[in-house]
Amino acid sequence: MKNIFLFIATCFIFIISIPLNAQVGLSGHYKSMTASGWEDIIATYNVENSNNMVPLKNGYSISLDYWFRLKNKRVEFLPEVNYSAFSNDNNSLSTNFYSFFANVNLYFLDFDGDCDCPTFGKEGPSLKKGLHFQISPGLSYIQKSVNLFALSQSQSGLAFNVGVGLGYDMGFSDFFTLTPIVKYYFYPGHNWPDFDVTLNGRAFNGEPGNTTPLTHFTAGVRLGFRFDKLGRRW
What we know:
By secondary structure, this protein is of the alpha+beta class. The chain has helices spanning 2-17, 36-49, 126-130, 195-200, and strands at 23-34, 58-66, 68-69, 75-87, 93-106, 131-148, 151-168, 170-171, 176-191, 211-226. Strands 1-2-4-5-6-7-9-10 form an eight-stranded antiparallel beta barrel. The longest helix is centred in the N-terminal third of the chain and has 16 residues, at 2-17. The relative contact order is 0.19.
């Protein structure tokens, strides 16, 4: 909870300090995560200790981005700072992701259009102007913790990822846009050092199960604000 308040406070300070021509977005997402290597270790621990320790699955994220675009093509850039959190049912396992994503939106149905988006001051079908494909390469700083009975361990490290998504801009005014979006993120591999030894007291089957690919599936909304449009037509 402390991390959430810190992130929100940072976003608030950023928003009140931005120039009046800035174009920013706030996002919130539900997330699900898979980590096959860690889940195998947890499953082994559950079998041997008869403990219902649900793997890390569901979480949430909040983020802040800054929007700009190419002048003559429907390609938009939204560099984003993101905080994501996952935990199991009893909070004995948790992971926190502090991420930077270099989002790129491609409006494949209107690539050569002259829409002054992400709002819709121009005439034309909204689906054509609003539907877009998003690519999101990024870098995450990941904090991982175990707190179970007498067991306590914390680890952290960096991991690269790539994400792809599909979104749809709904412009309510020149100032405000709502964008539902679904995304999939893939981390090729991330290590949780000695996770198997911490839970099971030994190396997991003699294999490097502490390193695992990570995947995130997300669904949420972005609220876009164009302060350069304040005072214009709503």
